[in-house]
Specification:
This protein has 71 residues and is mainly alpha-helical. Helices cover 82% and strands 0% of the residues. The chain is built from 2 helices and no strands. The radius of gyration is 16 Å and the shape is elongated.
Length: 71
């Protein structure tokens, strides 16, 4: 694999790990908001949408780049 492709792969795996940690942080924040009685708009709440988007992209990165790392 080309040196630049390896660099992209390593950064993608690093980003996926960071996104996982960010998802945990958003979940903790959302729980704190619920505990404080702050309102949620439901499925279209920005906290929910952000979390869904981060999870989707994290899974995409892992499906594409973790396979390459194992090869």
């Amino acid at each position: 694999m080309e040196k630049q492709q390896l660099a992209v792969q390593k950064k993608a795996v690093k980003l996926a790990t960071a996104l996982e940690k960010a998802c945990d942080a958003v979940n903790e924040f959302s729980q704190a908001c619920r505990n404080a009685g702050l309102p949620f708009k439901g499925a279209d709440d920005s906290r929910v949408l952000l979390l869904q988007d981060m999870i989707e992209y994290m899974n995409h990165l892992r499906s594409v780049y973790d396979k390459q790392e194992a090869s």
